[in-house]
């Protein structure tokens, strides 16, 4: 498992550096897709090492995660290319989230009544969209990415401890590849459309959490606590207004500390009394 | 006279057919699995130190035995994957997850016999097991535990079936080879004869 994390980190780092040279002086329009591609390849290479599925038939729910990454990438590229904003972007987001939710939850909803299936899908899409919009509306750029990394890493720990080690590792891999990209981004300061990247990252992260929650019986209170992570962003925004003299690094550390609070609470909720194995 | 003989031979034929059908009905016994007295156990190695024993608590199905033609014996068993019980709630949750059984997506484990060699007391039962949506041939050694009338007027028959599977054959490849591939299965079935 550790090797998958290292591979994901190194591949993303190398690709971001390489693509950085390609996109140099070509601006935001070229740099954004290349950065997302680097994260996708970094995650996917580790996914194919860790994920033991693909024994068709049958198609297992974990098999779809790679397709979700491709969908997220395609949507982000479209958003970047056509500068999707306002109602068009919102409709696109809702459509994408609904399709992904339907596909991921299909094995469960076919055994439900039509009404309960509709309620489940509507609830899932609503929570997902609220989460997405909350992430978009708060502090921008680096803090936003940091929150996604904290959300992925926090969920990775909770999911691994409370349900599926496999999906926990996949979330950790996503956190690591995003982290590698972000570290390079801090260093090179390439111009990137952070709103598009935020949307792109949220799709695989929430998909993994959705699958882990529905198929691995993760403690619902722990998931709810972790869904509060965007609220930390709003608190950080308030603190930034009152403490304007602090350096960026101190602000990152403060955000990391604040972001780790929901993770610690969730961990306390799911921590096993004795060793599983 | 000839007419009387013809009627007599026809009656004899009807009698023989009826007794034949009755005999067939007597020799072929259908049993319904009593879920309260049946379970499916498995044992898996723990780090090479010991054997971890777990069980599935919900087992149902039917089996049949023909005293005259034992080779026609059949069994169809369904196990509720979510009923796994390894004496550790958190571990059971993990075993139900997509890492192992993926019980939400594949809630049933089924076994359908295809061939039986042996007699009423036991033998070898071959069939197809579907686990995690994957169907593979599996062979069980069958041994009768006992049979007889129960205190409620029914007739019961109990068997123990033992066999081995590799979890990787059924798509459960997670954490191999750290968590052992081979699983020893022991299915204890008590059936109530259908009236």
Structural summary, described in words:
The complex is a heterodimer of chains A (277) and B (195). With 277 residues, chain A is mainly α. Chain A contains eleven helices and no strands. With 195 residues, chain B is an alpha+beta fold. Chain B has one domain: Lipocalin, CATH 2.40.128. Helices cover 17% and strands 51% of the residues of chain B. Chain B contains two helices and eleven strands. Chain B has an eight-stranded antiparallel beta barrel with strand order 1-4-5-7-8-9-10-11. Chain B is elongated, with a radius of gyration of 22 Å. Chain B starts with a helix and ends with a strand. About 6% of the residues of chain B have low confidence. The interface between A and B is medium-sized, with 26 and 25 residues.
Q: What do the pLDDT scores of chain A average to?
A: 86
Order of helices and strands of chain A: HHHHHHHHHHH
Q: Specify which chain pair forms the largest interface.
A: A-B, 26 and 25 residues
**CATH homologous superfamily annotation of chain B:** Lipid/polyisoprenoid-binding, YceI-like
* Individual helix count of chain A: 11
| Spatial ordering of strands, largest sheet of chain B | 1-4-5-7-8-9-10-11
